[in-house]
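Problem 12. The chain below contains 389 residues. Write out its predicted structure in token notation.
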Amino acid sequence: MSQQKWSIILEAVIVSVLGVAAAMIYVEFYIRNISRRTPWRRGRYVPLLPFKVRPEGEHDRRSVRRAIAVVRVLGISSRVRYGRLLREYGRADRKSRALLRSVKVLIMLTGFPLLAAFCCAIVLSGDGDGVLSSRDMKLLVAINFIGVFCVISAWRFLQVGKRWRKQEADAQALLTCVSVLYLCGEMLMGRAKALTVDRFNSILCQNLGDFASDSPEFPDTERRLEVLRHVSGVQQVLMKSSGRLLIDGSEGVPGLVRELESLLDGLLEQRWLNLLDVSSVTSAESVTQSSQGEIDRRDIWIVVGGSSVAAIGLGVAAGIGVPLAAAVPAALVFLLGPAALWGSKRLGVSPRHVLDSVRTPVMEANQGGTPQQPSTGTQSQGVSPGAGA
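Solution.
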């Protein structure tokens, strides 16, 4: 490749990197703006989109009536009022649906420029006789960087969406608590399994832990630690009551419903240091940390993202004529670097592994010099190709 083409490619790469950096700065400011305004608390989508989530009045009333009916049928005295629960349930439902749809919209918005870049790349690759002009080379480099920007933006929106859902997990905890009460009633009538109730109860515990560990509502670290300790005890009480269902069957439902009714009243009154009576809990071990499933999903995203970026880089290098010996080390950095920085120990990738993987192809390229043709059996024996003629 001529020096002029290398200069054109280098210029396109520099401009594309600066453009992607500026676009990512804008994305970060946009995310901060959304985090500050929290439009989902008013039932709205993200800023710049005028959509609004409509309340589902009949669905809310039906869900609340079923939950309260279970408490009354079992003869448990309840301090939860129907009007207050219906109002807070409707707000929580609108907030949860608006937040979920906001994250989906943000991720979908990154797909349009990615699709446009993919179509442009197909047009450029199929145009002409296979020799790219300087303009097409610049466009091809820019298109690849646009694709990388879209993938990074989608990943960023997905990560911040998880954080937003954890920060607003108190609303989801209220919804899940009502759902568990309804499932308890279904279990009493033989229409729900104990395992289903236990699974939804574990989701409720996870929601409580997410809010206690990630919500910005708590004023300082000491208060957060107090809430975390109390929520840990609440989780153990709920899991113990839910576990009785797997031993006693429907006979353990009244005990769980009693705990859920007290929890529901505590959530409505925002008593985060007195959700349940946890005096019976001897050692409140922390169960509010990230589960192994979340760690596994993060590792999967790291592996898929690193592999995609490495494959895109190798494709661009092959398209513009970069030697494979120079492209492979860079691709290995993009493949193994994220795993070494953000991956868990289960991936088994350390900075030393990254250096060794990059050093090996570089040393082989330096020792081999110019690329050699594959040797035949006669050449390995010292006989020249024309000796048999």
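Discussion. Residues 284-292, 369-389 have pLDDT under 50 and may be disordered. Students who got a different answer should revisit the alignment rule from Section 12.3.
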